[in-house]
Amino acid sequence: MHKFVGLVVSVIVTLAAIHAFSPRPMPPFEVTRIDPQRLLINGVGATATQVVAVGEQGHILASGDGGGTWLEARVRDPRGSTLTAMHFVDANTAVAVGHDGWILRSGDGGRQWDEVAFDDKSSEPLLGVDGAPGGPLVAVGAFGRLMMSADEGRTWRRQEMPSADEHHLNAVAADRDGRILVVGEAGTILRSADGGASWERLPEIYDGSFFGVLHLTSDEWIVYGMRGRVFRTHDFGKSWRQAEVPVAVALFGGTLTPAGQVVLVGEGGAVLVSDDQGARFRVAKAGGRQSLAAVAATADGKLFVAGEPGVHAETLAAASPSGVSARN
User: Fold this and answer.
1) In which element (H, E) is residue 201 found?
2) Number of domains in the chain
3) Is 48 part of any domain?
4) Number of other CB atoms surrounding residue 203 within 10 Å
5) For residue 146, which of 215, 209, 201, 224 has the smallest C-alpha distance?
6) Which residues span the domain enclosing 57?
7) What pairing do the DSSP bridges indicate for beta strands 230-233 and 241-242?
8) What pTM does this model have?
9) For residue 15, is it within any domain?
10) Which of 170, 164, 180, 153 is nearest to 253 (CA)?
11) Of 24, 158, 163, 250, which alpha carbon lies 20 to 30 A from 11's?
12) Tens-digit pLDDT profile for residues 45-55
């Protein structure tokens, strides 16, 4: 009897082992839904089908239904470092940057991410990232840090920037012809006309900090920052003209809509809109207590703003007859 019982137990153990180690498909992971208004969101980007937002503690949210539902993206080996900005290189390739020199890359439109760079010796944050398809990607950050990638974000190298004087570099914009503008504190504007191979510091046009830069069309670019200061150039930085802005609030993020409108967001929930390539701005929304850090427009013209109140869709107010709204 004891031998029979022992035989049965042996068979059970053997079958259990065979089952445990036999190949079979992995069970699907439970999708994590998250409230996008409960997180500090620092960066947002959009394609024709996907909206992605990044923020505190390394959270990345993705929506494939125009912001109706937000799901937590999967980050392989998450570190929890705060993410500060993200950029879609194309419909599938995206890059996000953040504290501790952390750089993540996605090849599936922002649903899954892999770490491609991390600085375990310094906690200095990266603050901005940009680049055109087929060209170099550029990430900028604290104390003049500038990182470049020549393989769509798979690998990165640090480039010394002596002309930046270790000022914090806050944002970068690049076009398809290899022209790059970088902006930062103390009026810093750096320019490269050769894909980042060489750089020059442009003459100062403002002594306050710039928080953002946008490439519009051809040689047209705008830079923006403290106290509602916005400057535009038609010749890639050779000359500048200050834009008309009706409110003196700090501006932190911007985008160009498919309809050609320039949208800037910033302090106190301000949303400013220009219908003439950044020459004049009107107030579409202002007067809140929570600031906005980033904005992105989808291919169908839907606008997403992000910041202290999380991320949500925003409807632009119609322009007043004069083209500029009253001060708020």
Assistant:
1) strand 200-201
2) 1
3) yes
4) 9
5) 201
6) 40-314
7) antiparallel
8) 0.85
9) no
10) 170
11) 24
12) 999 989 999 99
